[in-house]
Amino acid sequence: MTSTVPALGTRTAEGSALQAVLLDMDGTLVDTEGFWWDVETEVFASLGHTLDDSWRHVVVGGPMTRSAGFLIEVTGADITLAELSVLLNDGFEQRIGRDLPLMPGAARLLAELSAHEIPTALVSASHRRIIDRVLKSLGPQHFALTVAGDEVPRTKPHPDPYLAAAAGLGVDPARCAVVEDTATGVAAAEAAGCHVVAVPSVAPITPAVRRTVVASLEEVDLTFLRGLMTQMH
Predict the structure, then answer these.
(1) What is this structure's pTM?
(2) Is there a contact between 3 and 151 (Cβ–Cβ < 8 Å)?
(3) What is the pLDDT of residues 107-139, one digit of tens each?
(4) C-alpha distances in Å from residue 82, one per residue of 65, 78, 87
(5) Which three-class secondary structure string do you get for 49-117?
(6) Rounded CA gap, 97 and 121, in Å?
(7) How high is the mean pLDDT of the chain?
(8) Which one is predicted more confidently, 133 or 22?
(9) Which of 44, 57, 104, 131 is deepest in the core (most CB within 10 A)?
(10) Three-state DSSP class for 132?
């Protein structure tokens, strides 16, 4: 877990106010969910296996240990989880080096949060090496804290990454708004007690208590996020 700026003055006097915004990365801020599937397909093709497109919904949004382990199991590929993780990270790093499109509304939202000095954290299941590459495109100055999937005891769908982010910012998870694109990430945020905005990227997500579903980040701004705090707790 890396903090890029001191997290000072993050607590608000008003208990019901928004204290921080915690953002997922892949598929939420950057249009990379398809990249992971492309790399997985290429790596397994090199191993002599063809991935079934229906498996994409199983692996999306999850930690690499889960997604890579699943693909090894269903294909019977002769490779260890550690070896496959290296190949996938190498392939993904090469892919984002060529092109890294931001999701519609992402740059505007990050700029707005920064302008209003809202404590913001990037919380991803991706490994640190990948996050640091993506930060160059997102702008590290937008984040007081970044949490990588290989820096917590349990990554998404467990609450650990979001609890670590809230603790690092010195805020109450219940006063945090989380923006996620997958059911795995939503489960992690909800288990941590946060309010969730779901922007589905690959698989649909249904609304629920403390969970608002939108079609695009273009629907999300600071006023919208502050409004979440007044909804049913």
Answers:
(1) 0.82
(2) no
(3) 999 999 999 999 999 999 998 989 999 999 899
(4) 9, 12, 9
(5) CCCCHHHHHHHCCCCHHHHHHHHHHHHCCCCCHHHHHHHHHHHHHHHHHHCCCECCCHHHHHHHHHHCC
(6) 23
(7) 90
(8) 22
(9) 131
(10) helix
Q: Please list, in sequence order, all residues whose beta carbon lies within 8 angstroms of the beta carbon of residue 33, skipping any fewer than 6 positions away.
A: 26, 27, 60, 61, 181, 182, 201, 202
Tokens, residue 29: 């801020």
Radius of gyration of the chain, Cα coordinates, nearest whole angstrom: 17
Amino acid identity, position 100: L
Tell me if 143 sits within 8 A of 122, measured CB to CB: yes
CB atoms within 10 A of CB 198: 25
Establish whether the linkage from the previous residue to 159 is cis, with ω within 30° of 0. no
Alpha carbon distance 187, 43 (integer Å) = 29
